[in-house]
Amino acid sequence: MQEPLTPAPFSPTSPSTSTPISPIALPPTILEPLTTGHYASILIQRCPACFGGTVFGRPLDEGGDIHITTDGNFHHHHRHSAGDCPKFYEPAYFLPKLEVDAVGCQINKVRKQIPRVVKGLVPDEAIDHYQSSYQAADGKKQKATMDSFDDTGVMALICHHDIPPFFANIDTPGEQQKYAVALIQHLYSLLPLQTNVILLYDVGCVLSCSLAQYDILPDSIVSCLRFTTTAMHVYGHEWACQLVYNPRMANGLSLSDGEGTERLWSRFIRLIGIQQSSSVRD
Ligand SMILES: [Zn+2]
Ligand SMILES: [Zn+2]
Hints:
Residues 1-24 are annotated as: Disordered. The chain is α/β, with parallel strands linked by helices. It contains nine helices and nine strands.
């Protein structure tokens, strides 16, 4: 009988050389005593498994208290020509447009200031490169849809079990930072103080950098937040970025992959109308 194969231990290596790279050391965690409290009842209703805890303050490099993912989808849009129905209910899942736009104004305001110089583990070029290519591709593709649609997409925030506590309507050509920031800010308004959150986002590296450079969110939130990219999308990022933001290389992430929004979009696929038709000639 053949002996079972034992998998070799994983060690990250550079793609250009085979020299082993020592694991990235996170900044030392200041050990604060754990605190007790409760999540807001609306969160407990959405997912008791994630939001049923009563002890907070688990260090971010040990996995934090909760893992959250956010992502946008530009297939769930709304035509201008369809109009709006009479208002007969208050949306329970969608953030009000005013709340999202207020965050957008705050971002525009602070971006006029001189950015702070942040000494990060990832070189600025590695993040800037991805930021510019991401915005260019996304903006061009989505601009054409603005003529037909007033809401161009949906931004979701989901828990570790792919349950969405909240959404935000996207009404701009691209996936601007205001949607993710508004969702994070809204979530924090329902969390006890000192809740440490790990946030997985396709462009988590870019948003993390922006929050460090500008006063977009208060320090009380930024100090309890840690960003990583999502496990599949991360391979489109620079190697230097992956070493810090890849959830498979980050301490405390366990098997969280941040791809739950893709599974959510898959379940919502029947809500998307047919956008292209083919005729006999085609
Ligand atoms: Zn959950
Ligand atoms: Zn990156």
